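Q: What residues go here?
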C-alpha cells in the first residue's frame, strides 16, 4: 500500500501564507514587509491564480481560452449580483469596469441601461474581442489597471475578481476612489477560497463603509464569492 506524504516545502508555504494574510497583511512594519516578500516570491513560483502576473501570461491565457469558463452558468450568479447592484443603486450609471476581460459583466449588465461604460484590461487579446461592442458611450481599452489614471468620473467602479491581481491593492483602491462622482460606489467581488482576497477585503472593510454585501454560493461546483458594495 502506498503512503501519502505531504511536501514539507508546500506545507511551509501554506502555513507562512496563512500567517501572513491573517496577521501581517496591510501592515507597513519591517517584519510585515519581510513576510510579504517571502510569500510573494512563493506565490509567483507556484503560479497562484489570485496573485499579480505579467501581461505576457495574461495574453497567453486569453489566447489559449483559459478564461472561457467565466461564461458558464456556474458564474452566472456572481455576474448577476454585480449587475443587479449597479442597476438598482445607480440607474443609468457611468461605470468603470477594472479588469473587464472579454466583457462578460458588460454583457450581463448592458440591458439595464447606462450613460457611459469604460472597461479596462491588461490583455490586448481580450480587448480586441470587444471591438464590435464599442460605440459612443461604450469603450474598452488595454491598460495596466494598477498604472491607469482615469480622466473622468464614474458613478460605479467595479473590481470583479480583479483587485487581488494588483501588487498594491489597498493603494489601488485609494487611487480609484478619486475617480468617483459624489456619492459614488465601488463594488468588489472576492473569491472566498483566496487567502489573499479575503485579507484584502478585510482591510478594505476597516477603511471604507460597507453599504451592502451578498454571499454567493454555487452548487454543485462548491464555488463561492463575496460581493461587497463600498461607499467611500
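A:
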Amino acid at each position: 500500500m502506498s503512503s501519502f506524504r505531504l511536501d514539507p516545502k508546500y506545507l511551509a508555504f501554506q502555513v507562512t501564507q496563512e500567517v501572513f494574510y491573517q496577521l501581517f497583511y496591510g501592515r507597513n512594519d519591517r517584519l510585515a514587509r519581510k513576510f510579504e516578500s517571502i510569500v510573494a516570491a512563493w506565490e509567483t513560483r507556484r503560479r497562484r491564480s489570485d496573485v499579480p502576473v505579467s501581461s505576457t501570461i495574461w495574453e497567453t491565457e486569453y489566447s489559449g481560452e483559459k478564461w472561457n469558463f467565466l461564461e458558464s452558468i456556474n458564474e452566472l450568479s456572481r455576474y448577476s449580483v454585480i449587475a443587479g447592484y449597479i442597476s438598482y443603486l445607480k440607474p443609468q450609471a457611468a461605470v468603470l469596469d477594472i479588469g473587464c476581460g472579454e466583457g462578460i459583466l458588460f454583457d450581463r449588465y448592458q440591458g439595464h441601461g447606462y450613460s457611459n461604460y469604460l472597461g479596462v484590461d491588461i490583455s490586448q487579446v481580450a480587448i480586441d474581442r470587444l471591438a464590435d461592442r464599442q460605440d459612443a458611450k461604450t469603450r474598452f481599452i488595454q491598460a495596466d489597471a494598477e498604472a491607469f489614471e482615469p480622466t473622468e468620473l464614474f458613478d460605479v467602479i467595479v473590481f470583479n475578481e480583479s483587485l487581488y491581481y494588483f501588487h498594491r491593492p489597498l493603494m489601488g483602491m485609494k487611487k480609484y476612489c478619486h475617480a468617483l462622482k459624489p456619492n459614488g460606489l465601488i463594488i468588489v467581488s472576492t473569491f472566498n477560497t483566496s487567502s489573499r482576497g479575503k485579507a484584502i477585503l478585510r482591510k478594505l472593510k476597516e477603511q471604507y463603509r460597507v453599504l451592502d454585501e451578498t454571499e454567493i454560493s454555487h452548487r454543485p461546483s462548491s464555488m463561492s464569492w463575496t460581493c461587497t458594495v463600498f461607499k467611500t
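A: Context that may help when evaluating the design: The two ends are 58 Å apart (CA to CA). Residues 8-67 form one domain.
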